[in-house]
Design brief:
The chain is mainly α and 179 residues long. Helices cover 63% and strands 3% of the residues. The chain contains four helices and two strands, in the order αααββα. Strand 1 and strand 2 form a beta hairpin. Helix 1 runs antiparallel to helix 2, helix 1 packs across helix 4 and helix 3 packs antiparallel against helix 4. Bound molecules: protoporphyrin IX containing FE (HEM) (2 copies).
Length: 179
C-alpha cells in the first residue's frame, strides 16, 4: 500500500523550485543569446553556459523522475477536472522538458562535435542524423520553449488560485507547509 503524505519531500521540493528558476533563466538566456553579435563578449560564453546548464538539467530531471517513482507524492486536490488537468499539465511539462533536451542536443551536435559541459566533461555528438537537422531542431526548440513557458505560467496561476481562492494545500505542499 502507498503511504499517504501531505507534502512533497524536501528533495522533490528543492528540485521543483530549482527547475522553475532554471527554466525561466534558460528561456530568457536562449532568446537573448541568439541575437548577440559576433563581437559581443558573450557570443561564445552564453551558448556554452546554456548548453552546459541544459545538459546538467537533463540529468537532474531524469533523477527527479526516478526519485518520484521511489518516493510517495501527495494527492492533487480540487474538482475532478482540476485533478485531471493538473496531472496532464505536469506530464506535458516533463514531456516538453525532454523534447527541449533532445532538440537542444540535435541543434548543437549536427557538426559531429560533442557538447563540452563547463569543460568538466564532454557529451559525445552523434553528428547529422537527418537533413537540415540544426535548422529544424532549432525551430522546434524555439516553439517548445514557448510552449513550456506558457504552460508553466498557467500552472503557476492555477497554484496561486488554489492558494488564495480555494485556500487549500496545493501550494503549501510544495513548500512543505501542508496543514
Ligand atoms: C540539453 C539542453 C539544451 C541544449 C543543448 C540547448 C541548446 C540550444 C542552442 C544550441 C540554441 C541556439 C539555437 C540557434 O542558434 O538558433 C538554443 C536556443 C534556445 N534555447 Fe535551448 N538548449 C537546451 C535547453 C533549453 C531549455 C530547457 C530551455 C527552456 C525554456 C531552452 C530555451 C531556449 C530558447 C528560448 C532559445 C532561443 C531560440 C530562438 O530564439 O531561436 N533551451 N538552445
Ligand atoms: C517555471 C517552471 C515550472 C515548472 C517547469 C514546473 C513544473 C512542475 C511539475 C512537473 C510538477 C509536478 C510534480 C510531480 O508531482 O511530479 C509541479 C508541481 C507543482 N508546482 Fe510547479 N513548475 C514551475 C513553476 C511553478 C511555480 C512558479 C509555482 C507557484 C506559483 C508552482 C507550483 C507548483 C505546485 C503547488 C505543485 C504541486 C501541484 C500538486 O501536486 O497539486 N510551480 N510543477
Amino acid at each position: 500500500m502507498k503511504s499517504e503524505v501531505k507534502n512533497y519531500n524536501l528533495l522533490a521540493r528543492a528540485i521543483h523550485w530549482l527547475s522553475a528558476l532554471v527554466v525561466i533563466a534558460m528561456f530568457a538566456v536562449g532568446l537573448w543569446m541568439v541575437d548577440l553579435s559576433y563581437y559581443s563578449e558573450w557570443y561564445r560564453t552564453a551558448p556554452h553556459w546554456h548548453k552546459s546548464v541544459g545538459l546538467l538539467f537533463a540529468g537532474v530531471t531524469l533523477f527527479r523522475l526516478a526519485w518520484k517513482i521511489v518516493t510517495p507524492s501527495p494527492k492533487v486536490e480540487g474538482a475532478a477536472y482540476e485533478v485531471i488537468g493538473a496531472k496532464l499539465a505536469h506530464l506535458a511539462m516533463y514531456g516538453l522538458l525532454f523534447a527541449l533536451f533532445v532538440s537542444g542536443y540535435l541543434i548543437s551536435t549536427e557538426d559531429g562535435r560533442g557538447i563540452d559541459v563547463f569543460s568538466w566533461f564532454t557529451v559525445p555528438g552523434l553528428g547529422a542524423l537527418f537533413e537540415g537537422q540544426a535548422d529544424l531542431a532549432g525551430q522546434v526548440h524555439f516553439y517548445l520553449a514557448w510552449g513550456l513557458i506558457l504552460l508553466a505560467a498557467v500552472h503557476a496561476l492555477a497554484a496561486l488560485k488554489h492558494h488564495f481562492i480555494n485556500k487549500d494545500n496545493t501550494l503549501r505542499k510544495m513548500i512543505g507547509a501542508s496543514k
